[in-house]
Amino acid sequence: MKTVTTYTENDNQFYPTPASFLDKIFADFMPQMKVFEQEDKYDIQVLEPSAGKGDIVKYIKKHSGNDSIYSYTRLPRCHIECVEIDKTLQATLKGEDFIVVHDDFLTFETYTKYDLIFMNPPFAEADKHLLKAIRLQERYGGRILCIMNAATLEKLNTPTRKEISSCLNKYKNVIKIYDAPFAAYDSERVTDVDVAVVWIDIPTPFNSSASAIFEKLDKAETFTLNTDEPTEQHELIKLGLDWISAYVKQYNEHIQSAIAFVKEYEAFRIAYKARFDNIKSSEYDRPFTLKVYGKDFESINTLIERIRYDYWYALFSNPKFTAKLTYRMQQDLQGRLDTFKHYDFTEHNILVLMQENANATIRGVKEAIIGLFDKFTKYAQYDGCDNVHYYNGWKTNSAHKLNKKIIIPFYNPWRRTTRYKFHEGCYGYCTTDGYEYKLDEHEAIRELSELAKTLNYLAGGVCEMQNMEDLQHIIKTNFDAGNAKNIQFKHFTVTFYKKGTCHLTFNNNELLEKFNLFASQEKGWLPPCYGKKHYAEMDKAEQKVVDEFQGAAVYEKIMSEPGKYFLTSSSVLALAETNA
Questions:
Q1: What is the reported pTM?
Q2: Which of 99, 302, 313, 489 is the most buried (most CB within 10 A)?
């Protein structure tokens, strides 16, 4: 079982980075930062693996360049990704339009190549986080800028710290010690600990000796990504989606083979240039170019993003997966495909996505039901008909619920035309007011389908769901016959009037009761104890609300069948699948 350590703002390991300290770091490490400009890198990929509420990434974003002012900034254009373990802070980062690619950095695995990892990890585990960053950068080469407790480098009393010391001896680095920078005037949380800032420059592993073409000794280098996620696999099996693991395995093989090819190409290109650079016909000639998916090769990351896109697209197009989603969810995922290229195709990310979709579905269903209730109750006294019954709700005197019969505006089914028509031996208007009225089923189908779909979410346990094809057939048959009165469906009976109203009567009292109950609870009009204790156990104030809302007898009936009247998250998702 995976163990996750969570750091929150209340934890003494969470120390947001003061802007004054970031100014100092950027000023002191300016020579190191200039390496990107010297390498003609105008776009770099940046990872912040302990992003917190975004102090570092916001600073980087503010100081990264664009086409016009690159030479005046400290960094080139930065494409930033974050890792953050705290869900509240994740939401904060996403709200600022930052991409959060994972939660726990120590379990984070990716194929992405990062030019810079800029990090302020929890001081208690800074050695583990720094070593993790070093291992990530060793795959392609890259830089690390790490803020950490100075004692981590001074006291080599653990295997991890000793390993970091070995890496520092191996790679070019710059280390600066700062006296209590988190005690500065703009520190959100103050500590007087001395801090080390470490810059590590890990060179690219590509070189001429890696090329099988020239050396004919080594095969193309591959690396293995740790994708053993038994917990996620078990969860997929439980959901009947174990076939996704095969997709993930194929994705890993696809990515690894593509990276191996690019590495070989890069090794060959470097070796070729070193051997034959003295012979060229023009400084603009490129003897070899690589095209990926029909376009000039840009970087390993663009290749990875394209492969990711293909796999997410394949998943979202697979009927085995889409059968678990509502139509709106399917449309939403297809519309967001371009964003998924930033996320590795892993079982973990797929399960996170499914949970997000489930949460969105539950919110959407609740909003749809409340929206329909508000639409019906908006016209409280329309055309002389009382749509609602008022009662004194919990801590309010404006609570109300729907009556069995309601009247709402509905102009669309009737169409007026001014066509002339042969009448009593001569041409004239077909009606006394000069108009011909025709029933148009299209608008009626659209409006009533939305009503029926929303009520279907409440139908579970109390009545049959309304089939949309049957609804369309009923409307068309009646309208073709010129009938707009007493048209009966599963949930309601309707009559359309030319003056622009629709009289709707609920066919099932239990469905109406469930509708009113759900809306009243969501709006806070019923006591918090409603459905949790029996009528006799309530105090006088609680009983008074129940008396006016429905009475003790109906309440006790609901208490005896809670699964029938109360919507749960699982029931909402099940109904959403059926109602998709």
A1: 0.67
A2: 489
